[in-house]
Amino acid sequence: MSALPSLLESLPEAARDARLNASSVLSGGSLTPGQRWGVAIACAATLRHAALRDAVLADAHAELGEGALAVIDDGNAAASLMAMNNVYYRFRHLIEKEAYTHRPARLRMNRLGKPATSLVDFELYCLAVSAINACATCIQAHERVVLEGGLTEEQVHDAVRIAAVLSAAAVSLTL
To answer: Cα separation of 40 and 92, whole Å?
Structure first.
């Protein structure tokens, strides 16, 4: 048995749905294996549950082989970048004051221009993390970029489903 299913077997019966949904969202669907595991890596890093993160990384390595390094690098970079941007842009959205809207962010986002995988995949990872962090501005911006980049609404939907289920798993692992 791979690492994530083994970890999720420890969940209490109250979290049975999280366990069942994890196996569903991380197998098949509209995403490529790299997209699926990149989203999972970015989300697991964002959720800050070490055992969940380690299990996702182990399974990504097992499924992606040599291609795992670029996906892991971009997943981690997306989590880091969105930790900053989601706070900033969520603040600007929630404060609803014109004065903040016109101020430049002056936050470096160089990694967006230099992903290890592809720009569209990196943006998809950022979108999933932004869903976890509830940043409407970032969700809308990343969704627009991935759709313009050729991904479909089904792929966006599948990425956010991964984010939702891993969020439930992280919470459930603390029960």
So the answer is: 27
Would residue 111 count as lying in a domain?
Answer: yes
- Candidate list 138, 139, 162, 168, residue with the active-site label: 138
pLDDT tens digits, 85-128: 999 999 999 999 999 999 999 999 999 899 999 999 999 999 99
- Total number of domains constituting the chain: 1
Range of the domain at 46: 13-172
Question: Quick check: is 126 catalytic?
Answer: no
Please pick, among 79, 135, 156, 166, the residue that the annotation labels catalytic: 135
Give the separation between CA 112 and CA 122, rounded to whole angstroms.
7
In a 3-state reduction of DSSP, which class is residue 30? Answer: coil
Is 2 domain-assigned?
no
| CATH code assigned at 26 | 1.20.1290.10
Q: What is the pTM of this model?
A: 0.96
Is-catalytic flag, 138?
Answer: yes
